[in-house]
Amino acid sequence: MIDHIGFSVSDYERAKAFYQAALAPLDYGLIMEVPAEVTGHAPAAGFGANGKPDFWIGGEGAMNKPVHIAITAKDRATVDAFYKAAMAAGGRDNGAPGIRAHYHPNYYGAFVLDPDGHNIEAVCHTPG
After folding, report:
1. pTM here?
2. Which of 2, 12, 51, 93 is the most buried (most CB within 10 A)?
3. Residue ranges of the VOC domain (predicted)?
């Protein structure tokens, strides 16, 4: 089981604003922020739900390869809300909400690229 994940971004403040907006429909919020003075190199922001940060970004600079991260949504309407919020926050379409039957018959996901090109997905595995 994964406890948390983190990756670097090219523009920390821009990415933090993007994720605050894009993850809100998934009930994810900014849980904590660690300043550069504490990390010793760059600030970090931890997003999550129920008080536990499990999705981290760091201001170390752009990565040379994008990452793919999928976050579980409670229902298909939440996947739709994530997509809409992420697009409004400056995300780029990488797969509108819909069934991805090649994974399984109830796989309903939406994919957006964040400002650094990371592929962020919201997915619901339950029927309708």
Report:
1. 0.92
2. 12
3. 1-125
